Amino acid sequence: MNAVLIGMRLAVAGGRTGWARLALTALGVGVGVALLLLCLTGQSALQGRAERAAWRDTSSSTPATAPDPMLWLAVSDHFAGEPLHRVHVAALGARPPVPPGLDRLPSAGEVVVSPGLRTLIAITPRDQLGDRFPGRIVATIGPAALEYPDQLVAVVGYTPERLGELTGAQRVLGIQTGLSGDYAFTLAARLLIGIVAVLLLVPVAVYIVMVTRIAAVRREQRFAAMRLAGATRTQLAVTAATETGVGAVAGAMLGLLGYTALRPVVAGHLTHGGARFFDSDLTVAPAWLIVVLAGVPLLAVGAAMTSILGIRITPLGIGGRASRRRPPTAWRMALPGAGIAGMLAIVAGVPWLVEIPPPEGPYMVFLLCLLVGGVFAGPYICLVAARAMARLGRRATTLMAARRIAANPRTFRGVSGVVLAVFAATFMACMLSAAGSAPGAAFYGGLRPGVVEIYVGNQPVTRLAPLMGARTVAIRVHPDDWSSVVSCAELTRIVVASCPLPESVRARGMGRDATIGVMSGAIHESVPGAAGLPIRALYVLTDGTLAAEERVRTQAALLLPRAILNTQRDTVLQESRLWAELTTLARLTTWFVVLLAGCSLTVGVVAGLIERRRPFALLRASGVRLGELRRILLLESVVPLVLAVVLGAGLGAAASYAMAVAQGDRWFPPGLDFAGGLAAGVLAALAVTAAALPLMNVTTRYDAVRYE
Questions:
Q1: Average pLDDT, integer, range 70-96
Q2: Is 235 helix (H, G, I), strand (E, B) or coil?
Q3: What are phi and psi of 666, to 5 degrees?
Q4: Any alpha helices (H) in 93-182, and if so which ranges?
Q5: Rg of the chain (C-alpha set)
């Protein structure tokens, strides 16, 4: 109990130094708690979306939830590039199952729409949108059935006879609950958020550790005196834990308040797939809330207890631990070396590696070697760079900074998170550059502007007569092998292609980037009796305006409600949004990690000033200018940070290059905007670090030379 009271007194009654240490600890813990809670809200938000979308996956195999059945046909559509979902229903009894967000099932001639769709119908000509939902709007779908506030959803009531005539209508007894059919994509997005959380947690953890060491010398001296006075190891540990725990608990509460304040702001600006989240989505489960509020302070307490481990062993051994630590050796390069060698083998086309397509198999193993090895080898690279500075440097300040870095290259750990963040951002930037620089090769077989694809499956020509015309191209189904039948001249009117078609395209289709009508399967330019063959897909050429495309969509939706409709506008909008969000996420994460690394370096600078107060004062007293002393500290911060950025960028570029070559694609380096943004982040981090340099004047006054 006495140890606890002493620890609390040291925390709150230590003068300016004690209050500064308390404030920095609270700030570090608060940042960590707020960031982790915000990351966890992203996971819960995606989970909520997936669960609210599950009802649209209702099928004949869904367990019964109501006494009477109904007919059900769910269709995906678009309007102006935005996803639009239409569900056609018909009750087969008095008590059919009812989807969430509805009070009852709409009867024949009735339509229930989401708020966003209701507003859109009111301002759009009916032949472009409203006619797709025959009947009158009688109600609005509630939030329980919507993935996001502006989602476009409609439930259209039919008679059993009319809906039974439509291909694909199913007899169902219940409404699907749980996870939706898009769970795989949601799981990938949640995994991405988890990776971002780890990227944020690493520098936050390092920052917390650095904060707990900001007054390491004073703490070691004080605790060593207590140990010599008779304090036991347990009492010393309890005192240190209590002193740090006070600031850590205050920081946890500060982080909780910050999370509460930032949550509405994040909800108003955070998007996924171009869509906002409901405010209620951004919540953290109580169990995770407890884990974060308890775990982050425990991390700070653990760091504090580790920092006094030498004193707990022997109080007379303080200050000697660093000298006993061996410098990192070249063996640390083995892991990243294995990763680089593996990437080179993939680029060179080693048979047993190329047979397993990236990003699976060996590629992921080598990628993991690069990621882990880059962080693990950082201290050794820092040591090599410091020794090179010592050999090549001519100024005394450069030599002193180099010797200091070489004596303690493990300062690289303070910026180790930068390697991971810059790696991920560089890899993503290379992928974005490739996607935006080679449209001819990457989108061979993609729709041309103004073309509406109507994928009908296998329909007779007579059924599609209203859509046929001079501006319509039909992809027909070969009777023998279900391949596609269309002339090359007609094909080039609707998709990005050239005549004559390459043999690989004629034999296997146009590949995964092509429109679904010609994605796979052989392509025949002509067969006997082609005019009478069933039709797989229709392509209607328009003038390229939104109104013309939507009129075709509406006509096709009324004629064939289950047809899959696509335009280039849909694909481009969704892909551009996805890439933009990924780019923004990668850049924000990188900038934050680099800035937080700057904060860690700042804390390290302050700790270094306190640790070397007397040596710096002696140097100043012997004639070394104050600016030169500041330059020493700045160099000690610049070298690890720049090395971390260069290492992360180099490894990220190497990994993306290996993937591009292995897949047969061209590789494009990141754009100048990415390099400029990365440089701006480094400069901002160094500016944060430079803010601590004025303390040199205070800590190196002549009274610091005295030994009494």
A1: 91
A2: helix
A3: -80, 150
A4: 115-123, 160-164
A5: 32
Specify the DSSP class assigned to residue 495: B
3-state secondary structure of 18: helix
How are beta strands 136-140 and 110-113 bridged, if at all? parallel
- Around 446, how many Cα atoms within 13 Å sit in the side-chain half-sphere? 14
CA nearest to 537, candidates 72, 521, 126: 521
Spatial distance between the Cα atoms of 470 and 493, rounded to a whole number of angstroms? 12
Helices 416-437 & 362-392 angle (0-180, nearest 10) = 120
Residue 88: what are its φ and ψ, rounded to 5°? -100, 130
The C-alpha angle 422, 47, 141, rounded to 5 degrees, equals 130
Query: How buried is 261 (Cβ within 10 angstroms: 0-12 exposed, 13-18 middle, 19+ buried)?
Result: exposed
The set of residues, in sequence order, having a beta carbon less than 8 Å from that of 539 and lying 6+ positions away, is: 447, 451, 452, 453, 454, 472, 473, 474, 475, 493, 494, 495, 517
Exposure letters 85-123 (e unless 16+ CB within 10 A, then b): bbbbbbbeeeebbbbbbbeebbebebbbbbbbbbebbee
The pLDDT tens digits for 565-585 are 888 888 777 767 767 777 776
Residue 504 · residue 664 · CB < 8 Å:
no
Tokens at 475, concatenated: 């992809």
Higher pLDDT, 129 or 521: 129
- Compute CA 650 distance to the chain's CA centroid, rounded to the nearest angstrom: 20
Segment 164-190, tens digit of pLDDT: 888 788 999 999 887 654 544 455 555
Contacts of 513 (CB under 8 A, 6+ apart): 442, 443, 444, 445, 446
* Structure confidence at residue 106 (pLDDT): 94
Contact 237, 310 (CB under 8 A): no
CA–CA separation, 322 and 368 (whole Å): 31
Res 659: pLDDT: 79
Residue for token digits 């008679």?
159
- Give the C-alpha separation, 275 to 291, whole Å: 30
pTM given for the model: 0.70
82-91 vs 152-157, strand pairing mode: parallel
| Residue-by-residue DSSP string for 528-590 | TTGGGS-EEEEEEE--S-HHHHHHHHHHHHHH-TT-EEEEHHHHHHHHHHHHHHHHHHHHHHH
Q: What does the angle CA 411 – CA 416 – CA 419 come to, to the nearest 5 degrees?
A: 135
Peptide bond into 359 cis (omega under 30): yes
In 295-344, the DSSP E strands lie at none
Burial of 242 (0-12, 13-18, 19+ CB in 10 A): buried
Is 634 or 140 the better-scoring residue by pLDDT? 140
The percent of residues in the chain predicted with pLDDT above 70, rounded, is 79
Contact 90, 71 (CB under 8 A): yes
Cross-strand pairs, 548: none
DSSP 8-state symbol, 270: -
